[in-house]
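Make up an example, fold above all:
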Amino acid sequence: MTHVRNAAMVLVAVLLVVAGVWASWGSAQHVLLAKGREHGTLAVSRCTEERCVGRYRGDGPPRELGIERSVAAGPGAVIPVVVKPGTAEGVRTGWGGGLHAWLPLGGALVLAAPLVAGGLRLRRTAWGMAGAGVALWVAAFFTL
C-alpha cells in the first residue's frame, strides 16, 4: 500500500512540473530559440489588463504588435522583443523576458514541493524545489 501511495505522489508531482514546463514553453521557446526570428523594440502605447500594444520597429516592417502585460510594461515603455512567427504577437527578450517566460514552471515547483515533502518524505528535495521556484520568481521580478 505504501508503494501505491508513493507512486501516486510521484505521479502528481511530476504532472505538476511537466504542466509548468508545458505552460512556460509557449513563450520561452521564442526567447531561447530566437536565432532567425525578427528582433526589434516595441514602444508601448496602450495597455489593458492582459495585453499591451504598441509600435514595433526592428528587422521586419514597422507595424503594431501586442505583448503579454507584465509589471514593467506600461504606456511609454520601450521593450526589446522577438516576434512570434506568423503572428502580431511579441515576446520580451533578454534575461527579464526569459525569466518571465519560465514563471509558470516556478509556480509548479512551489506547488509540487509540499507533495514531495509530505507525501514522499523527501524534505530536502522539497526545500530545493520550493527554493528554485521562489528564486525564479524573485529573479524575474528584479530583471523586469
